[in-house]
Structures are given as structure tokens and as C-alpha cells.
């Protein structure tokens, strides 16, 4: 997986793959390949969301901790 892959790019690619599959624009020969790529992209997006959630929660905790010090 590319180091420069962003959440937005992965999500856009997932949307495109889903659209191709829904519209039956993917040949049977490529279907398994597209599904494998989709699985990789889904995992990437999930990891990115979990990491972002953890980071945001840590920032909120730090902000709440700093409030108590200012009082």
C-alpha cells in the first residue's frame, strides 16, 4: 500500500469500486481483484478512523486537564 494514500483517496477509490460492481461494469475476471482491493482500502480507512478518534480523544483529555489547572 502506498505511503501517500490518504483517507479521502481510499474512500473515493472504494466508492468507484462499489459503483463499478453495482453497475456490473467489472468483468468476472477482475471481480476478485476488485474485492481484494476494496478489503485493503476498507481496512486502511478503519485504521485511519481509529487513529484519528484516539488522537482527538487525547487532545480533548489534554484540554480538559488544562482547564482544571487554570481554575
TrEMBL record:
It holds the Pfam family Exonuc_VII_S. Keywords: Cytoplasm, Exonuclease, Hydrolase, Nuclease. The keyword Cytoplasm applies. InterPro entries: Exonuc_VII_S (IPR003761), Exonuc_VII_ssu_sf (IPR037004). Its EC number is 3.1.11.6. One of its GO terms (cellular component) is exodeoxyribonuclease VII complex. One of its GO terms (biological process) is DNA catabolic process. SUPFAM superfamilies: XseB-like. GO terms for molecular function: exodeoxyribonuclease VII activity. Belongs to the XseB family. This is Exodeoxyribonuclease VII small subunit.
Amino acid at each position: 500500500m502506498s505511503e501517500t494514500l490518504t483517507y479521502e483517496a481510499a474512500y473515493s477509490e472504494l466508492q468507484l469500486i462499489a459503483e463499478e460492481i453495482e453497475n456490473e461494469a467489472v468483468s468476472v475476471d477482475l471481480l476478485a481483484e476488485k474485492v481484494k482491493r476494496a478489503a485493503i482500502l476498507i481496512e486502511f480507512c478503519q485504521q485511519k478512523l481509529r487513529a484519528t478518534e484516539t488522537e482527538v480523544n487525547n487532545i480533548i483529555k489534554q484540554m480538559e486537564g488544562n482547564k482544571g489547572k487554570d481554575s
